[in-house]
Every structure is written in structure tokens, then in C-alpha cells.
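FAQ

Q: What does a record look like?
A: Structure on top, sequence underneath. For example:
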């Protein structure tokens, strides 16, 4: 998953200043869940709309995305990995919206070269991009593909000029699937593996979308508001 600050908000901030807490900003942005809408799909860089979240295939990406948007079926979920094959853009709030979330194809054994090329091209050229969210399954931990992706993303975190174009945030999904007496050890190992592969990656946010209510979703929303400088 990736998040962008929309052009509308960038222009609006030039003419007025509003001081609110990150928590309040997140509540305002995500409060009108019925207005969240699909904007466009991009199969190549030329079709990217003028307005990212990634994770290994079948890590619960679409389920988490729906929960963050406060919806159940805006994004199609599937037990079959590799359903997302394009960059899919979703507006948060009423038109024109204040930010855009982008669902990216999963990586791993079912990933395809052209998806990776699209994703990398997006990272290199998208000026509105504020933060990339990478997801890991709490039950499975990191494998070699996850480590490679973290290392790959790290190459984009510092530009040739020494600036940071966007930040990288880790998210651990399906925490409820880990036996309670093993959670601390499992999460601790994932944190160590993330830091070893990508020291600049922000510490993981713990989530579970199967719990009622879902766990960690408000933390994700606040994190997005902070990343997009909505507060």
C-alpha cells in the first residue's frame, strides 16, 4: 500500500494554516467511509492518474486496505494469490479528497517482471508519493523474498541528492493467528529481520483484520495522516 497527498490539499495548504493533532486529522479524513472510491487502475506508467501498500502475495493486503477505508468490499479479496495486477488508486473522503491510497501488486513466486517494472517506475517518478507500506504475515514471518524486497526498497529511500523522497513503513498482519504464548517471540524476530534488511524502515504496526473490531486500524490511519502531513 502507498499513500499520496492529493494535489487539492497541496494547493489548499498554501492559502491557510490549520493546526490539529494527527489523531484528529485521521478521524476527519477517514470518518466518511461511504465516500471512499476507486479512481483508476494503471497497468503502465503512462496510464498513472494525475493525482503506494505492497506486500507478498496473499498476505492480507486487500483485507487490510478495506479495513483502513472502513469498507468490506471496495477492494476484492481472494484466497488466490496474485489477484492485484495493476496500481489501483483509491480516493479517501469526498471528491476531490485529501489523499489517495494505492494498492500495488504483490511480489513473490506469483509476481511477474512487468509488475515489478511498473512498481519501480512508479517509485522513481511519483513526486506525490509520501510513504510505502510493506506487509508481513505474523504467522509466517519474513522469507528470502521479503528480505530482498526490503533491501530493494531501501535503495529508493535516499536520493542521489541525499534527500528522502518517501518513507517506508512495515505492517504486521494477522497477529491473531499466532498462539498467544508465541506472539512476543514471533514479533520480536520479525522486527529484527526487518531492521537487518532495511534499517531505515519504520518499526512495524501490528494489525489483525479478523478481530471484531479490527485491531491496529486506527494506528494505520494516524500513520497515514502523519505521513501525508495532514496534521
Amino acid at each position: 500500500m502507498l499513500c499520496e497527498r492529493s494535489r487539492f490539499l497541496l494547493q489548499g495548504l498554501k492559502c491557510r494554516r490549520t493546526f490539529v493533532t494527527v489523531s484528529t486529522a485521521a478521524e476527519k479524513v477517514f470518518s466518511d467511509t461511504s465516500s471512499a472510491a476507486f479512481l483508476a487502475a494503471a497497468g503502465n506508467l503512462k496510464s498513472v492518474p494525475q493525482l503506494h501498500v505492497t506486500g507478498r502475495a496473499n498476505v492480507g493486503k486487500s483485507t487490510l486496505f478495506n479495513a483502513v477505508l472502513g469498507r468490506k468490499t471496495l477492494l476484492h479479496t481472494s484466497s488466490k494469490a496474485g489477484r492485484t495486477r495493476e496500481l489501483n488508486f483509491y480516493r479517501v473522503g469526498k471528491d476531490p479528497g485529501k489523499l489517495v491510497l494505492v494498492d500495488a501488486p504483490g511480489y513473490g513466486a506469483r509476481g511477474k517482471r512487468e509488475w515489478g517494472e511498473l512498481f519501480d517506475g512508479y517509485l522513481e517518478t511519483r513526486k506525490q508519493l509520501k510513504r510505502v507500506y510493506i506487509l508481513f504475515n505474523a504467522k509466517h514471518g519474513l522469507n528470502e523474498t521479503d528480505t530482498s524486497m526490503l533491501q530493494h526498497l531501501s535503495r529508493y529511500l535516499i536520493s542521489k541528492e541525499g534527500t528522502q523522497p518517501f518513507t517506508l513503513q512495515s505492517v504486521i498482519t494477522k497477529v491473531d493467528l499466532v498462539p498467544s504464548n508465541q506472539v512476543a517471540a514471533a514479533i520480536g524476530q520479525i522486527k529484527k529481520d526487518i531492521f537487518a534488511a532495511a534499517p531505515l524502515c519504520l518499526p512495524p504496526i501490528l494489525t489483525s483484520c479478523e478481530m471484531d473490531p479490527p485491531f491496529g486500524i486506527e494506528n494505520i490511519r494516524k500513520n497515514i495522516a502523519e505521513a501525508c502531513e495532514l496534521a
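Q: Is there anything notable about this one?
A: The helical segments are 7-12, 22-30, 61-69, 113-125, 144-154, 183-197, 217-227.
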